[in-house]
Every structure is written in structure tokens, then in C-alpha cells.
Design a protein that fits this description.
2 helices, 3 strands, 44% helix, globular, alpha+beta, 3-stranded antiparallel β-sheet
């Protein structure tokens, strides 16, 4: 299994005349399917801490996808529970 970062787009929520506020990581996966492969948003601090560490960036992608999957499972279980009389 592997996550490959294919691109990084910087976010400028406060305009282009100031420093960036975060980043979006584009990625592809091999060996497993990681949902919809939509970009993962990270904070400026997360990017700064990991910009020289490809494995750190990959770990951030995996963490975000796990959070999304867990939230989805919680929603499904809540819905399932509502179906039981």
C-alpha cells in the first residue's frame, strides 16, 4: 500500500498579499482505495512541520481519510439505529 503526494496547493484565505494559511495535498493511492481521492486540507503548521518529510505528509493524508471514514461509519450507525423501532 502506498500514498503518493502528487501536488500541493497553498491556501490564501486572507488574500495573496499575506502568508499562506494552509495547504491542500493532492494524492493517489496504490494497493488500496482511499475514498474519493479528493484533496486533503491541512493547516500551515501541519505543512511546516512536515514539508521536508514525505512520510509525514503521507501520514497526514491517511489520518484525514481515517477521520472521514470514522465519521461516515458513525453516521451510518446512527441511521441504522434510527431504523430499529
Amino acid at each position: 500500500m502506498r500514498v503518493t503526494i502528487t501536488g500541493i496547493n497553498f491556501k490564501f484565505d486572507e488574500g495573496y498579499n499575506v502568508e499562506y494559511t494552509g495547504a491542500e495535498l493532492q494524492y493517489i493511492t496504490t494497493g488500496f482505495k482511499a475514498g474519493d481521492n479528493q484533496p486533503v486540507e491541512i493547516t500551515k503548521e501541519q505543512y511546516e512541520e512536515n514539508k521536508s518529510n514525505p512520510n509525514g505528509l503521507r501520514a497526514l493524508v491517511v489520518e484525514k481519510k481515517l477521520d472521514e471514514a470514522n465519521a461516515y461509519l458513525d453516521e451510518l450507525n446512527t441511521y441504522k439505529d434510527s431504523l430499529q423501532g
